[in-house]
Automatic annotation (TrEMBL):
Record lineage: Eukaryota, Metazoa, Ecdysozoa, Arthropoda, Chelicerata
Molecular functions per Gene Ontology: nucleic acid binding
Source organism per UniProt: Araneus ventricosus
Source domain of life: Eukaryota
Gene3D superfamilies cross-referenced by the UniProt entry: Ribonuclease H-like superfamily/Ribonuclease H
Descriptive protein name: Transposable element Tc1 transposase
């Protein structure tokens, strides 16, 4: 909840800056559910809406099947332009049973960021980009180990439930 006086929303003291496209050179796509972590895809080159669509086609439903949830999931992605491109939204409309609308600039509602942060810490930031194969191997080892599932259960899902409780107990101003 944000408290401020009327007409002060653009006052610099009330703004929080964000960095767009400020990631590193290693691009990784992954998905998760309460049942576990889905496929992990390492991306070469520039990520755009066409590549994002191909990754979704090749990995989203397969991950859901492997996790034993079939079509019983709510699909969530942030408001990045490659996620909101018309072709991607149309594919999601016809292929994902439920889509969760994302509020803009919502770090609390991006639970996979907790997994990415833990991956970077575990894999060791100094070797993330050299050599690439070693980064891929160590990332896969972290991502698919049982402790990552426990991290997902205890840290990520607990945080989501806390936010849900906060949201349901907070009235809108």
């Amino acid at each position: 909840m944000v408290w401020r006086r009327k007409n002060e929303e653009l006052n610099p003291n009330n703004l929080v800056g964000t960095v767009k496209y400020g990631g590193g050179d290693a691009l990784v796509w992954g998905c998760m559910s309460a049942s576990g972590l889905g496929n992990l895809v390492f991306i070469d080159g520039i990520m755009n809406h066409a590549l994002n669509l191909n990754i979704l086609r090749d990995n989203l439903k397969l991950s859901a099947q492997n996790l034993g949830i079939g079509n019983n999931f709510v699909f969530y992605q942030d408001n990045d332009p490659k996620h909101t491109a018309l072709i991607v939204r149309l594919w999601c409309l016809y292929n994902c049973p439920q889509n969760l609308k994302t509020p803009p600039q919502s770090p609390d509602l991006n639970p996979i960021e907790y997994i990415w942060r833990e991956l970077v810490i575990t894999v060791d930031a100094a070797m993330r980009f050299r050599p690439r194969q070693k980064f891929v191997e160590r990332s896969r080892r972290f991502y698919f180990q049982p402790s990552s599932q426990r991290f997902l259960e205890f840290r990520v899902l607990t945080r989501i439930l806390q936010l849900k409780d906060i949201q349901s107990n907070t009235s809108t101003c």
